[in-house]
Design brief:
With 319 residues, the chain is of the alpha+beta class. Among the domains are: 89 residues, Alpha-Beta Plaits; 57 residues. Helices cover 63% and strands 15% of the residues. It has a five-stranded mixed β-sheet with strand order 2-3-5-1-4. Helix 4 runs antiparallel to helix 5.
Length: 319
């Protein structure tokens, strides 16, 4: 009995130990596999993140390319990318016209521009100077404001002209015309007869002339857009104001008619004054001559006795 009990206890202990070993082994394996899975996931995360980042960048690049392709034909609405011609006209009353003209020239020079024209009339307090400035387009507004501060601004007029489409059209036409010129030159190089040679030379000359004309227009537009034009009138304190606007109405017409009448009368009196010396020099001798001739034509009458006619004898009657 005691031996059987001992064996049973031993078997139970062995089974319990085996079960514990199996449980511990399974837990370790589970922990190892979990650790390996965690480590693998941790290792794969950056890779997946990198792949996702690359995919995102690729998607962004694709979207950007698509947006660029979609907007390639759309007009660029940014002001700094457009071709705009600025022109300005202003009149400023100053105390010293010559000093203001020198300062205006200095303002244009500091802005990177130059003086395109300089006309001056009269002198002193009623002097007037007209300067034409060419300044870079980005400095246009600043130059106008500096000149306005030289005295009392009487008038200002700013005009802008957007020639972006015209510039783009000229670029396209120039590119096309250059291709036509190159084609004509290639054909001219392969000409085999005098007739073809002359015809191709004439055609090449026409195409080159058209290309030169288009390029000249492009240079003109580039000059106008790169350098803005400002016409400045500097007037002295006593200078007359700018020309008044045209007026209409009865009184305006009456004033105009009276001025015309006075002007015509002045012209008539001027002509008479010019003819008066000739009338005096020629008219007086002519008048004297006419008087003398008229007196010679008159014959003086002879005064004497008048005799009575003889009596007429009476006629006798028959017996």
């Amino acid at each position: 009995m005691d031996g059987q009990v001992v064996r049973r206890h031993g078997t139970l202990l062995a089974v319990t130990a085996l079960a514990a070993t199996l449980v511990l082994t399974g837990c370790g394996a589970g922990d190892d596999s979990g650790s390996k899975d965690a480590a693998g996931s941790a290792a794969e995360a950056p890779a997946k993140a990198g792949v996702a980042g690359e995919a995102g960048e690729a998607n962004r690049d694709t979207a950007a390319d698509a947006a660029g392709a979609a907007g390639a034909g759309a007009p660029d609405l940014r002001v700094d990318q457009r071709a705009i011609i600025y022109t300005g006209t202003m009149r400023v009353q100053v105390d010293d016209v010559d000093a203001a003209a020198r300062e205006t020239t200095a303002v244009a020079t500091r802005a990177g521009g130059f003086i395109g024209g300089d006309q001056r009339r009269s002198a002193g307090v009623d002097a007037v100077a007209e300067l034409q400035l060419r300044v870079p387009a980005p400095k246009f507004a600043g130059v106008v404001e500096e000149i306005a501060k030289l005295g009392r601004q009487q008038s200002r007029e700013i005009d802008t002209q957007d020639v972006t489409e015209e510039t783009v059209d000229l670029d396209a036409r120039i590119t096309s015309q250059r291709a036509r010129v190159d084609s004509a030159r290639r054909l001219l190089g392969r000409a085999t007869s005098i007739t073809d040679l002359v015809s191709l030379e004439n055609e090449l000359g026409r195409r080159e002339a058209d290309l030169a004309s288009l390029e000249a227009k492009k240079r003109r537009l580039a000059d106008l857009t790169a350098l803005s034009t400002i016409t400045v009138s500097l007037a002295g304190p006593a200078a007359k104001a700018a020309e008044e606007k045209a007026e209409t109405g009865f009184l305006v017409g009456l004033r105009g008619g009276w001025k015309a009448f006075v002007a015509s009368l002045t012209v008539l009196l001027t002509v008479l004054g010019a003819l008066l010396p000739w009338l005096v020099a020629l008219g007086v001798p002519l008048a004297v001559l006419l008087v003398v001739l008229r007196r010679r034509r008159k014959v003086p009458a002879l005064v004497g006795p008048v005799s009575a006619p003889p009596p007429v004898p009476a006629a006798r009657s028959a017996p």
